[in-house]
Amino acid sequence: MMQVIQKQFIAIFLFSITVLDAQFALPIFQAFHKPHNYVIDMDGSNDYVSVASNTAFEPDAFTIQTWVNLDAEAGGTTRYFVYRHKTWYIGMTSGGATFIGAVRDNNSSNWQEPESTTNPDPNGGWYHIVLTFASSVSRLYVNGSQENVVSSSGYATNEQTTPVSIGAKYNDGDSNNYDGQIDNVAFWNEALTANEITALYNSGSPLDASSNSGNYTSSSGLVSYYKFNKNANSESGSYNGSASGGPTYVDMSIP
What digits encode the pLDDT tens for the residues 132-151? Predict the structure, then answer.
C-alpha cells in the first residue's frame, strides 16, 4: 500500500511541475522574442528628417500625428515636431508653454493655430499629438483628447512646393530644432474622427496605424508613416525621408 501511495505522490508532483513549466515557459519565450522598437532622437541643434515635396501632403482634409518625448523645454522660440513650410505644422510654442498645431490659408498669410491646455513637461513621458483639418476647421488633440478647435470661413490648404521636415523648421536650411525623441509620425489624407484618435492613443500604448482596429478605420487614408526602425523610411507610399545632422535611433519598448 505504501508503495502505491508513493507512486501516486510522485506522479502528482511530476504533473504539477509540468503544469507550472507550461504556465511560465510561454511568457518567457514571448518576452525573449519580443520585437525591438526604435525611436529617433533629435539633439535640438541640427538634427532633422526631410521628406521631398509632394502634392500628397496638401489634400483638402488631413491629419498629422506624432509621439514625442521631450528632453527640454522649447527655449525662446517655437520648436517643431513636424513642419511643412507655409502649409501646416505641429510643435511647441515659445518657452514650451503649450503644444500647438497650425494650418495656413491657401489665399492669405493667415494661420489657424489651435493651442493645447496641456503644458509640455520634459518629465511627462511620451505625448501623443494630433492635428486635423477639414471644412475650414483645425483641431488639436493631446493624449487622445481634443484640447482646442479653431474655425475660419473659407479656409483651404496651401499649395507649396516645399519639403516636409521632422524635428525642425526646414525651408532653405533648418532651424527651430526639436530636442527629444519622436516616433510614429503619420499623415492621412482625411480628418480622423475623435474616436479614431482616442483609439490610436490607446491609453498610452500606440496603436499601429497601418491596420484598422476598433474605432480606428482609416488605414486606407494613410499617406506616410514613419516608425523610425533604424531608418527614416515611410511604411506607406514612397515618401522616404532623409536624415540630416546625425540623429540616432534608440531601442525602446514604447511607443
Answer: 999 999 999 999 999 999 99
Question: Which grid cell is 67?
Answer: 509621439
Give the Å distances, CA to CA, from 212 to 38, 140, 207, 228: 22, 22, 9, 21
Alpha helices in the chain (DSSP H): 2-32, 194-201
**Residue 148 burial (CB count, 10 A):** 18
Joined together, the cell numbers standing for residue 86 give 507655409
Among residues 6, 187, 206, the alpha carbon closest in space to that of 88 is found at 187
Pairing of strands 169-170, 174-175: antiparallel
Distances (CA, A) of 59 to 39, 104, 132, 177, 232: 27, 13, 12, 26, 23
Split the chain (255 residues) into runs of 10 and give each run's mean pLDDT.
Answer: 46 41 33 62 95 93 97 89 95 95 91 96 96 97 98 88 93 84 97 98 96 97 96 94 95 65
Residue matched to cell numbers 513642419? 83
202 close to 10: Cβ distance less than 8 angstroms: no
β-pair partners for 70:
180
Taking the model in full, what pTM does it have?
0.84
Respond yes or no on whether the N-terminal peptide bond of residue 206 is cis (omega within 30° of 0): no
Beta bridge partners of 187: 64, 224
Q: Residue 119's closest CA among 137, 151, 93, 90?
A: 93
Predicted confidence at residue 53, as pLDDT, reads: 93
* CA–CA separation, 186 and 131 (whole Å): 11
Q: Residue 68 in contact with residue 182, Cβ under 8 Å?
A: yes
| Phi and psi at residue 227, to the nearest 5° | -95, -10
What 3-state DSSP class applies to 116?
coil
